[in-house]
Amino acid sequence: MSVIKLYNTETKATFDVSDSWYKSYNPVFSRCGKYLFFVSDRDFNPIYSRTEWNHAYDRMSKIYFLTLSQETANPLSPKNNEVKVKEENKDKAEEKSDSKKEKAEEPDKKEITKIDTTRMASRILCLPVDVADYYSLTAWGDRVYYMKSDNKGKSLMMYDLKERKECDIIDCNNYIISRDKKKMLIMKEQNYYIINTPSSNAKTDKTVNKSDMKVWLNQKEEWTQIFYESWRQMRDFFYVENMHGVNWEAIKTKYEVFLPYIGHRHDLNYIIGEMIGELNVGHAYVNGGDMPVVKKIPLGLLGAEISKDASGYFRIDKVLEGASWSDNLRSPLTEPGIDIIKGNFIISIDGIDLKTSDNLYKHLINKAGKVVEISVNSKPEINGSKKYIIRPIEDESELYYYNWVQSNIEKVNKATGGEVGYIHIPDMGVKGLNEFVKYFYPQLDKKALIIDDRGNGGGNVSPMILERLLRKVQRANMARNVTVPSQTPRQMINGPIVMLINQYSASDGDLFPYGFKKYKMGPVIGVRSWGGVVGIRGSLPFVDGAVLNKPEFASYDAETGEWIIEGTGVEPDIYVDNDPYEEYNGRDAQLERAIEEVLKAMKDYKPIAPVPEGPDKSR
User: What per-residue confidence (pLDDT) applies to 484?
Assistant: First the structure.
């Protein structure tokens, strides 16, 4: 857990403001010198999964503050509700005096900050705000400004300690207050606005005119700076100090000689890429930067494989199945009301006869997502053709992936009599987790499972998936009038599991089969995995927006203390390589071997015991 600390620059002493029980971050001193504000995750409200009996904690944050001095009273303590009898003339005089005092006070007046380092934890207080995600705190006088993010979106908020009231200032992405605290710059979507620092709801009128904002730039100097910045970042953040035995100073000398000859931003990325490539590590990448943006024209695709027929028209050789309820899996030719099948001919597109056309797709340029009329016939002729209104898609890759997975499920079901499940995990990010959840829980009634890690692009969720696959039966459960007993935990496969890997099982897709083998969960089948597990945290900022991935952390064997996987990959227990030609023609030798091995292992399958006879407690 992250802990907020205070450091005395004179005595060199360090003091804990928060403790390690709660994650605390984003500290900021108030300008008045009385408080230290910060965000902390201390609100516990579990949410429960709808796929299994499990929990998670999502938003846990509120804004807290420390009174720096023991003499500072709690600004949120209860007020005395005693009714005061006014002495009219005296009260008016005091009001005028207070008014003059307020005017005389300078908002930027520097206060002496006194910090008592004893019993700080007992002086931590909570602002009465909702649980949400908070960031960009700024404390000025009795006001605290902050960004709030929740299910409604992002908003700039302000809490007034004196008035004890929270105010929703404006919906925006972020803000910054000027040094004199009089003005505020608001970022809203892609526009900027300057307003007076608000004390209540604010409105944005005129945007900051960016149309004439220009900067004179010496690209050669900027590129030189980016080169050396890349070299320094690798030097300072590479996961081991010895830089894999490479003389990093000599590498700088080797590549800096090319700087005078760089003529394009792509050249710079190439040189940096070659330089960091000397480290011989998997996750070292460079991309992006200030490059020309080429506007792409989306080509409309039909979700089908099409060839030119001898008649001149275009023949549909294959229609990709889809799921019309999902935008990502919509296949234009299979939507309700459209009767187009393999073997049909496309006669025209938007009234243009295709008989003399050399390329069907030139008639679908800039048609992705737009309404298109096509004429289709079972014969290569106009007479008898039928018109359909369709919406082409921009990308067919999701459809191909969906059809491949469904085909594998069908093969496994057919070969095992429906007793074995199949799950492919394309990566270890959101998509991979979704695919696992989508196919794991509906197949819990299977006796065994094939997990396909081939082509897994990596991420970081493999521990979550392994945890579910590792579950063992603790006990069986029954209920009267329920014919089939259940088990605890309920969401698990109580049978053999085998895994498929290949040379494209990468990063966390490497760590997944490593863990599978480490826990002896079943045989791993295929070819050696990619072999890149030195992880990255994201790029530090570059002046032109370039991205440099620095390998910053790595895994090693907890028992032997030896490095694992990087540069070698995970070896399968059973080596099977797919022949590209056979694979192109629909044969998957690796999947066939997985089916063979799982059927072999199922011979020892033991279901949970049947429900025992009811106990006799009459004696």
Answer: 87
